[in-house]
Amino acid sequence: MITTFRYTPAWLVAGFMVLAGCGEESPRQAIAREPDPPSMTVTPESASTPSVPGAPVGPVSFASAESSYRARRYDEAVAGFESYTSSRPTNQFGFYMLGLSAWKAGDLPKAEAALRQALALDSTHVKSYLNLGRVLLDAGQPDSALAVVEAVLRIDETVGEAYRLIGRVHGAQGEPDRAVTAYHEALVLDSSDVWSMNNLGLVLIHQGAFDDALRPLALAVERAPEVAMFQNNLGIALERTGHFTAAAGAYRAAIAIDSGFAKAQTNLDRVVTLKEDPNIGPIDLQVLAQGFSAQIAAWVTQEQ
C-alpha cells in the first residue's frame, strides 16, 4: 500500500540537514519521456491563466492582446503584450500575460524574463511563480524551478498546484520517491487534481509499479475522460499488467479524442498483436478508480 507524509520544502530542510546533490511528464510543450516500448505521452497541465478584472487598456489594449492569446495566436499575443508593457511598464498583469504568451510561442528566455518582471512588480503573485516554474522546467532547469515554486509555499502552503509542480521537479531530478510524496500532498489539498493523478501514475510506471499506477490513472480517466493523454497513459499501465484488450480500448479512446495522436496509434498497433493470457481475468476500472478515491480520502484523514 502506498503511504504518504507531509512534504518538507528544501528551503526548510536545509536549515538542519545537508541535502545530497542530484543530477518525467514534463508538462508544456511537453517534452515526452517515454519507455520504449510502449510510447508514453507526458503532456502538460494547462497553464494557470489570470483573472484580471478591470485590467487597464493601453495603446495596444490588454483585451486585444489577451484575445490573441485566447485564440492561440501566441506570436501575435507576444507582440501585443510587448506593446502593452512598453506603455504600461508598471502593470504586472501585462508582463504576466507576456510571459504566458512567450511560453506558448516557444520563446522560453522571453517568457522567463517577463514572468520575473511580473514578480518584481508583485512578489506575492502566486500564478507568476507557478508558471515561471513551468517555464524553467521546460528549459531543463529543475533546481531553479524548485526554488521558484517553493516561494509559493512561503506565501501559502495550501496551494496544491505548487506540490504538483514540485512533484514534476523531483521527477526531473531523478527522485521518484519525493515526486510521489509531492503528488500525494497535492491530492490531499485538492482531491480533484486529475493532473496529479496522471503524473503520479507516470512516476509509478517509471518505477515499474504498474499495478499501483492503474489506480490513479483509472481515476484520472474517470474524472477527465476527454483528455487523450490520460487514456494513453492508462493504456500503458493496462498493457504492462497484461490486460491487452482493455489497453487497446484505452488507446482507441485516446485516438478518438485526438486522431493525430501518433503515440497512441503506435501503442494500439502493437497491443492488438499481443495475445492476452485467458487466466488474467477482466479488470474493473471503476472499482480501481473508486479505490484510489477512497485512498485519497484516507490520506486527507491522516493529515488532519
Which properties best describe this structure?
single chain; 304 residues; mainly alpha; Serine Threonine Protein Phosphatase 5, Tetratricopeptide repeat; 63% helix; globular; disordered N terminus
Explain how this protein is built:
The protein has about 300 residues and is mostly helical. The chain has a domain at about 190-304: Serine Threonine Protein Phosphatase 5, Tetratricopeptide repeat (Alpha Horseshoe), CATH 1.25.40.10. It has 15 helices and no strands. It has helices at about 10-15, 60-70, 75-85, 90-105, 110-120, 125-140, 140-155, 160-170, 175-190, 195-205, 210-225, 230-240, 245-255, 260-270, 285-304. Helix 10 runs parallel beside helix 12 (about 230-240). The radius of gyration is 20 Å and the shape is globular. The two termini are about 20 Å apart. The model is unreliable at about 1-40 (pLDDT under 50).
Distance between the termini: 20 Å
- Which structural class do the helices and strands define? mainly alpha
Overall pLDDT level: 84
Which CATH class of the domain at 192-304?
Answer: Mainly Alpha
State the CATH topology of the domain at 192-304. Answer: Serine Threonine Protein Phosphatase 5, Tetratricopeptide repeat
What proportion of the residues is helical, as a percent range? 55-70%
